[in-house]
Automatic annotation (TrEMBL), chain A:
InterPro entries: DUF3443. This is DUF3443 family protein. Keywords: Signal. It comes from Duganella dendranthematis. It comes from the Bacteria. Residues 1-28 form the signal peptide.
TrEMBL record, chain B:
This is DUF2844 domain-containing protein. InterPro entries: DUF2844. The keyword Signal applies. Keywords: Signal. It comes from the Bacteria. Residues 1-21 form the signal peptide. It holds the Pfam family DUF2844.
Length: 570, 157
């Protein structure tokens, strides 16, 4: 090492010109040492960082000049201005392409080249709730989508990494307001979104159905489904709950025995268009009910039908004391507890009024009456004042109902408990699932094919206490129109929707009614609907049809599950 | 009330006696609620070669204001031997069934169990079938002993 130092020093001495040109090449120094000292060529150095970027991003330029010939340099190209001979400056990258940052100092230029790319677009994200306001009994769908994002993260009422688009079903467990937020990120940045879900307490939309021996004062009933109904003087808290009201999908509107109503209720009378007290005749195959039309708030579960017309059977008001002969001409008087087997009839079939437009347009004999001082004459009745199916007047869950009953074996049961749920496809507890939709015609009927014959006016009627159909080969019970086969019959029929859109077989049993134990109140019984010489079109699927099934009723003028009512689904 | 009559020449005895009649009786005025009365007649040819008797009867049809159609079947001597009804309201069965109305009302009491069923009476003196539900009723009744020879009750509409 000492040897080489010594050699360098000797070389300098020999050349006698080792002054400022230490970094110059030995050849330049040897060719013109004096010229180099007088006019050294400037060396311009410039660099950019980064050398590749995107539009709008910041680029740092750093420069210096060796051997400057002046005190200033000039910027050109992608920048401009007069600059010192050294320095640092930030610039913003311009349009996509190549940006040349040139610095000229004296006669020498140098250029820093920056490649500018188009920037990635900014991400977007959206969140939607459909619906955004639900009850604890309902579900909603949270959907999200994003653009220009590579990852999304949930926060707020949910959390974790999520796909950049998707949806999920939210079933709330509590009442409250819940905010769902999401941040999505990509090369172009990040974006946020949030949406709020309002969850309110669910109204109870279901009530119990009981098939039992009936109210006190009734004996020998079979297959009569009972519910409890609360009636109130309209707009007040003066209310009464009536138990053992017959649940009837074969009629429309609430009818209660006057003798079961407390006088404190004092339900107001409904008048005809002419101002007379309105009387009404409810006609059934097994008889008639006569009484007043009165107004009440009708409540079941948390559902309320406000100020609807109901029939008060056997009303003691002076206007209704005499039963018109055109009412009693329907047959027997059902207006007593023993004859009715119930304290009233809750008609919850497919129609909104018991009569409809024909009674609104004309004074139909045997339905609505204008009454004064015990004398009644047939009268028209506006739709809004007719006896109204309470379900159609509920604020929510008003498009129909679901009746669910447990199975009943051939031995029968002393009692059965079922559930009446209001609304169809409105809440999680009334959704049509695997059931088949059987469209009904304008009369509420469809077609049943039994033993090769099509019965075009068939219906499902919880108010009928058996299967009623014509089969002269089945032995009838003595003295009645029920069937008493020697042993249990296993039968089959095929139901077809009135528009032909669906059909399906129904297997059912008919047991010997008389052989049942006296304590049995629910059983698979049936009876005839006619003589072998009659041309009946009816097949009545009565209460035994409901055992072991979920049966939906969708009312007229409602479309549910893509099908317009009236229809049955089971 | 409008009343349109089509008179059948070979059954002139019915002229002026149209409208509903009580089962088992001669035709009589009923109510006055009909909006249309149609008179038709059929000659039911014997289907058996061993019989040469033709059943002759008339069907008069009334459409009530409600849309319910009522038919009465009257034999050549003017006796109503069968009636039927179909539509959204029940007709006045007391008048339509005449003295057989009480057979219908007393029948319910014979049932072995209380409740609400369809109605089917099949007795030697009268057959009554009533079925359906509110806003869709249908029924028919006839007197077996009064049927014209060769009359098939399954043809009652």
């Amino acid at each position: 090492m000492k040897v080489s130092h010594l050699a360098g020093a000797l070389l300098c001495l020999a050349l006698a010109a080792c002054g400022g040109g230490g970094s110059s090449s030995s050849t330049a120094a040897t060719t013109s040492t004096t010229e180099s000292m007088a006019a050294a060529t400037p060396v311009v150095s410039i660099s950019a960082s980064p050398t590749a970027t995107t539009t709008g991003q910041v680029v740092t330029l750093t420069w210096s000049v060796a051997n400057p010939t002046g005190s200033n340099c000039t910027a050109s190209g992608a920048w401009s201005g007069t600059l010192a001979t050294s320095g640092t400056q930030t610039v913003t990258a311009g349009a996509a392409g190549t940006a040349n940052y040139t610095l000229t100092c004296g006669s020498v230029s140098n250029t820093a080249v920056v490649t500018v790319a188009t920037p990635p677009p900014s991400p977007t994200v959206s969140l939607t709730l459909a619906p955004a306001n639900i009850t604890t009994a309902q579900s909603t769908t949270l959907s999200w989508s994003s653009a220009n994002a590579t990852s999304c993260t949930a926060s707020g009422a949910w959390s974790g990494s999520k796909a950049t688009s998707g949806s999920m079903t939210i079933t709330p467990t509590a009442v409250g307001s819940f905010t769902y937020s999401m941040t999505c990120s990509g090369d172009g940045g990040s974006a946020d979104a949030s949406t709020a879900l309002s969850v309110t307490a669910a109204l109870s939309n279901s009530t119990a159905i009981l098939v039992d021996s009936g109210p006190s004062g009734v004996s020998g009933v079979i297959n009569v489904p009972y519910v409890s109904v609360t009636v109130c003087r309209p707009g007040t808290t003066t209310c009464q709950t009536i138990d053992h009201v017959l649940l009837d999908t074969g009629s429309y509107g609430l009818r209660l025995l006057a003798g079961q109503l407390s006088s404190t209720l004092a339900l107001p009378a409904v008048s005809t268009a002419s101002g007379a007290d309105a009387g009404e005749c409810g006609k059934f195959i097994s008889g008639y009910t006569w009484g007043a039309v009165r107004q009440a708030d009708v409540k079941m579960a948390d559902e309320v039908a406000s100020a609807i017309s109901i029939q008060v059977i056997g009303d003691t008001g002076s206007s209704y004391t005499s039963t018109p002969s055109s009412c009693s001409s329907a047959g027997s008087n059902m207006g007593t507890l023993s004859a009715l087997g119930a304290k009233g009839i809750l008609g919850v079939g497919m129609f909104k009024q018991d009569c409809g437009s024909s009674c609104a347009n004309a004074a139909i004999s045997g339905v609505y009456y204008a009454c004064a001082s015990g004398s009644c004459s047939a009268s028209a009745m506006p739709l809004a004042k007719q006896i109204t199916n309470p379900v159609s007047s509920f604020a929510v869950n008003n498009n129909g109902l679901l009746i669910t009953m447990p199975s009943v074996g051939t031995a029968g049961l002393t009692s059965v408990s079922g559930t009446l749920v209001f609304g169809v496809n409105t809440q999680s507890n009334n959704t049509i699932a695997g059931e088949t939709i059987f469209k009904a015609n304008s009369s509420g009927d469809f077609t049943t094919t039994y033993n090769g014959k099509a019965y075009s006016a068939s219906f499902i009627d919880s108010g009928s206490n058996g299967y009623f159909f014509t089969d002269s080969s089945i032995r009838q019970c003595s003295g009645g129109d029920f069937y008493c086969p020697a042993s249990t019959l296993s039968l089959s029929a095929t139901n077809t929707a009135s528009d032909g859109s669906a059909s399906g077989a129904v297997n059912f049993n008919v047991v010997n009614l008389v052989n049942l134990a006296s304590t049995i109140n629910a059983a698979q019984v049936g009876g005839t609907v006619g003589s072998s010489g009659a041309s009946s079109n009816y097949f009545d699927w009565g209460l035994p049809f409901f055992y072991g099934r979920r049966v939906f009723v969708v009312m007229e003028n409602n479309t549910v599950a893509g099908k317009a009512g009236p229809y049955w689904a089971y | 009330m409008r009343r349109a009559l089509t008179l059948m020449l070979f059954l002139s005895m019915l002229q002026g006696a149209l409208a509903w009649a009580a089962l088992g009786s001669t035709p009589s005025e009923f109510g006055g609620t009909t909006t249309q009365t149609r008179l038709a007649a059929r000659s039911l040819a014997a289907t058996s070669t061993s019989s040469t008797t033709a059943a002759v009867y008339t069907i008069s049809q009334s459409t009530l204001d409600s849309g319910t159609v009522v038919r009465e079947y009257t034999d050549a001597s003017g006796v109503v031997f069968a009636v039927s009804w179909t539509g959204p309201t029940l007709p006045d069965l007391r008048t339509l069934l005449g003295d057989k109305f009480t057979v219908m009302t007393s029948n319910a009491a014979k049932r072995p169990k209380a409740g609400h069923s369809q109605l089917a009476v099949d007795q030697s003196d009268v057959v009554i079938v009533s079925s359906g539900h509110m806003r869709a009723y249908a029924g028919q009744a006839w007197i077996p002993s009064a049927l014209p020879a060769g009359f098939d009750t399954t043809t009652i509409e």
